[in-house]
Structures are given as C-alpha cells and as structure tokens.
Amino acid sequence: MTLGPPLVEIDALTVRRERGTLLDRVSLAVAPGTIHALVGPNGAGKSTLLAALLGQIEFEGRIACHWRGSGRVGYVPQAWSVDRTLPLLVGEFLALSRQRRPVCLGIARPLRPRIRALLASVGLDGFEERPLGALSGGERQRVLLAQALDPEPELLLLDEPTSGLDEGATARFEELVLERRAAGATVLLVSHDLEQVRRVADEVTLLERSVRRSGAPAEVLVP
Asked: What's the fold here for domain 8-81+152-220?
C-alpha cells in the first residue's frame, strides 16, 4: 500500500497536568485511506491524544490536518453510559443533529429512511423505536458508530469501539471500519485488542506517553 503524504500530522505533542505529563513530545503521521492503530497500556495517553485531536484539551506542539475532502471527523468514544430512564428513542437520538425542530415533535419524514438505513448498516435493523436507555453496551456502541458515519467522515476516530461487544458484533464492527477505509476514510483506532489490530490495521504506534515504536503491525506487535 502506498501511504502518501499524511492526512494527520502530529509533531512534539505534549500534554501536561498537575499530576504529571500525560503525553511527552509525541510525533506521528497518519496516512490518508489507512487504519492507524494506537496501542499501549492503560494510562499510556491514547485517549488523551484523541482528545487533543478533537480540540477538547490544551496541548503543546502541533497538530495539522491536511484535508483532501470534506474535513469531517467522526468519533466513537469508549463505553458510553446512558441513564436508563432517559425518554429518548434510538431514532430520535440519531435525528438530534440532523433536523432543526425538536425531536419530541417527531422525526422529519424525509429523514426516516436515512435513519433506518444507518441502523441497518450497523446491524441494528428496526431499532429506531427502541428506548436508548434500554440498549446493551454493545448496541449503544453501534448506535454511536451509526451517528459517526453520517455524514461520511474523512477521518474516523475510534476509542476502544468494540468494548462490550460480543464476537459477532465485533466482527461486524471491523467489517464496517474496513468498508469505510475502502471508501476512502482514514481511521485512527485506539484498541487493547492486539488480535483486532493485526486484523485491520495498516500502521501501528505503540504509545507509552511517548512513541516507543511505529510501523507495520508485524514490526510493532512483536512477542
């Protein structure tokens, strides 16, 4: 695979807090149209790096995104918890950012087929009338993926996206991510599942507050 110029370029990224340095001069490049995995132990700074990319935290150093298309970023966080008494349906949740009128007044008619198709694409066909708070953890993760995929992202950030998913749901999730890459999306994946990384990643960076190794999975994920 020809990786080409980077879509995301990170140079000397440093994040400091009162309790210490969370990231120390991290530099890496994420090539367009690839799946780049971040691996490392708990507390290594993987989620912190995603937060810096999303503009959620202050940092030192430089982050540059060289957009080739929409410039849209999709994001699936880790282990999203929901109040089980929340009076919101799955379809309404997906409609929140897609229509101007309040969802309590109903989902706009032209939007309904789009929401059904999104849910079907992540293996949740017919879930639009399910209460959001009644879903399992794995089902919630797939709803978040559906939200992240529409409109089509150029960069997809995934933070332990298959936590809580069973084997079948994990396999479907990986298929969807590979489909997004084939369609031209760039994916930055945080994962503790090294077998998953071997299955889907083109490039891997081992992070322990700073970059320890970076390269192809066979080079980085050594016994």
From this structure: Rossmann fold (3.40.50)
